[in-house]
Amino acid sequence: MLVFVVNKHGEALMPCPPRKARMLLNEGKAKIIGYQPFSIQLLYGSSGYKQSVKVGTKLGEKHIGIAVTSGDCVLMKGEVELRTDVKSLLETRKIYRRIRRQRKTRYRKARFLNRKKPKGWLPPSLESRTANTFRWINRFSSLLPNPTLHIEIGKFEVQKLINLSVGGVSQQLSNSEGYYNTRYFVFARDNYTCQVCKKKNKIVNTHQIISRTQGGSDRADNLITVCTDCHTSDNHRPGEIFWQWMQDGKKLRSYKEPPFTNSSRSRVYEQYPNVIISYGSETTSHRKLIGLEKSLVNDAIAITGISAIMRITGTTFMAKQFRKKKRSLHEATARKGRKQPNTNSRRNSKNTKASKGFFLNDEVQTRCGNIGYISGFTGKNACYVKSINGDYIVISGKTHKQQPLKGLVRRSHQGNWRYRLLHDA
User: Fold this and answer.
1) Which of 172, 219, 303, 351 is the most interior residue, by most CB within 10 Å?
2) What is the DSSP secondary structure assignment for residue 48, as one 8-state letter?
3) Which architecture characterizes domain 349-416 according to CATH?
4) Domain-by-domain residue ranges, the chain?
5) 52 — phi, psi (to 5°)?
6) pTM for the full model?
């Protein structure tokens, strides 16, 4: 992937090849100003030759695709994975605070006095994803000379996705309208058929796909019909039929992405008044026209409106956001009555942020040559290392997940984003 360049006045220039960037750095004519993505700043005067540049962005619920094109060349392409655990973490914090209010500890203002929401308010989970999406768009746009921004947005009617014939007064009613309760609606939706063994004419129950302890609810989209023969405690154990059914990833169709896309559409217009908007039907036809397969990154390339691809970068960047620090104000176990004050309490061993010169989320290389990120420390001399996809990297021939710190080589120090360049196959 090309290296982004700005002149000594901070104005963006056209990206240069990595070899040219190394020469400038070795000769002392440039300095490094960023690693995500890698960018340099010239230390001598240069106006630079500028071309027309386009930035294409494919919005999604969990992933976004970004591509930069100029003429018939693809200069940069990649994928950003956003956090999806914000809602569950806030629910956990709410439970901790509710428990704390029942104890005789320091005073916290009542919640009913702070419920007024400002204009344009979004739920924290959507606000986090929207803000980080704009963050990456702004980052690449600031490193390019006068780029033209192209963003694909969607507009969905969720009830039409569920039932095409809905309309009029029925559009204002819930899906379970006319049923005794949600339980009988789920039975009718699944045709009184067990969703595990696919058998009918049996005694059936409703089961939560995602349990309440993991952030699930009793809504119809989280319930399935299961017969009494399959819905047993033994079948929930590892290796049994119901456990295997859940491991296969079988679940009902989710409609979370359309509302997120609808809510972010207005934010796009407010944030980027001069943006060029496109829709999925236009992107699909143009992607097929230029001969690209279906993927998030290829959609981002097609969004820019490139007519033909004569040259394309051989690397794809991947950025993934994760929760680096535990910022909860309250724990499940109260500190009332402990000898050590809460303000001077020691950090939990699971939340250790540094050990032996290594920090949480540092990019390291193991003895086997694998590259990963420190996800946590165990004791003082070992840690856990995960790949950018979230898989544990283990020592060859060993079954435990711990990696000794003395066998690691730190490549770079990272914040709460994991950033990697992956070579295309």
Assistant:
1) 303
2) -
3) Roll (2.30)
4) 3-42, 54-84+124-156+257-321, 176-247, 349-416
5) -75, 130
6) 0.75
